[in-house]
Design brief:
559 residues; alpha+beta; 4-stranded mixed beta sheet; two-stranded antiparallel ribbon; 6% strand; globular
Amino acid sequence: MLLLDSENKSIKLALCLILLYLSPLFILGENAHIRVHDNLDSNIAWYKVLKNSGQLFGGIDSVIPQVINGLPRNTFGTEFSGIEWLHHLFPSMLAYALSQTITRLFAFLGMYLLLKRHFVKKDVAYPIRVWVSLAFALTPFWPSGMLSTLGMPLALWAFMNIREGRYSWKEWLTLILLPLYSSFVLGFFFFLFAMGLLWLRDLLVKRKPNGVFFSSIVLMTVIYLLIEYRLVYSLVFPEAPTSRNEFVSSTLGFWHTIGLACKNYFLGHTHVLTLHTLVIVPLSFLVIGMLWKKKDRNETDKRYMYLFVINILLSVWYAFWFNKGWQPLKERISLLNTFNFARFHFLRPLIIYLMYAVGAFILWQKGKHWKSFVKICLIVQLIVLFCANDEIIYRVAGKPSVKQFYATEQFKEISDYIGKPKSSYRVASIGIHPVIAQYNGFYTLDSYNNFYPLTYKHEFRKIIAGELDKSPTLKKYFDQWGGRCYLFVAELGKHYEFKKDSKVKIHHLQLNTNVFKQMGGEYIFSAVPIMNANENNLELQKTFIQKDSAWKIYLYHVK
């Protein structure tokens, strides 16, 4: 009873700490600092663009006219996604804060249930269950991924219960609802593939067909395919080629590949950060060293060794997917280009924190001194994660707040100055991300999207061809990827956030403004002055500065 009370108190404390971690989002609102890459510079604005377009339930062939003269509606994903609805119903920052809360609470719940039922069952080891679950819930996951990775422990809990024949309606409800707040291609495709391998192992090794377990895997897969019907349609009925058809991802030599595998193993990946380097990696090698010498390994020991090996294999697979040996095959099979199979490493947050919990439990059972060591590890890992809070990281790094980034008052001034309906002209940006203009309702020729028509990419390239020729790096970046369809400038490189205190100037801009004008372009929003504007048929009309904006915008009109 005392242990149960202590565990319940620890759970309540953990939930309070999650809310404390999230508090800057609710207290500061638009003055909060959050991730820019693949977040402020893309997804958050995309949700608003889709909302304003009225095309949430748009047809398969519908387009969003605000972006690149008609961006396919399918680019924005399914309307049956929870995060789409949050941003449809609430202002951007409130929707973002609510999404973070939902994801982290269910991440904690899922990992706790999984550990308690299957991996760390002993009552006395409750600190491991609670504090590893809290640590997992505080990892800096990619925000728009929702429960795509952080929901995997909850799914695994349900699948393992069903596999063992110890389940109720709760497990089935979990498998039905999780697809509504996660992504198939950004996590659960790879998870369900792994579950399929587990079922196949049971069939071949244990001679157990386990129809119920197999049915649960099929059920969740079918639900995802129904929800992601837009993706399924584009794969089954491919139409015009998209920018993804020109992806060249496999370019690495052998030693570069080995280096990338090591980097991924020790440091992780930006979209599935686990911050495991300082505490979890040393602990994992300590435990594997002990087990290596141990002759009589129990079930917990074997599980740990499986997790340790899987963790290594996932990093190796991630790196080797980009090895140049794949490229001939990718050129023949377009699916290998358009779908990123390297993302099996999205399973790593689940594997790493399961390994952390099981490894800590193995040490915990070795006696008093080891218990103290484990407690120190649990505390230090939580400190690491709290110090990595977005508000701390991005404020210290000098990144703009949400309000400063989107600069709505400043862009309203620009709109009022132009004085025409935004749908009647097109703009593009230099030195800032195009989504800033999109967020503020402008119709842009430039954009950052997962995929868009290949014909548009080729047409837009004519505008920046002169700049690409001056920079092999930018040329490769655009031609072999092209997700960022930007007005690239060789003098600026791959930098898109020149704040108003910047002293940078562009001296030798070389744009084809005739093509820009043919595509409907009239204005360029530049975060830095263009010294040879006249040579590019550009006329500076006005400079806009606003105290709550991170930018100084030079408004150029195409003559």
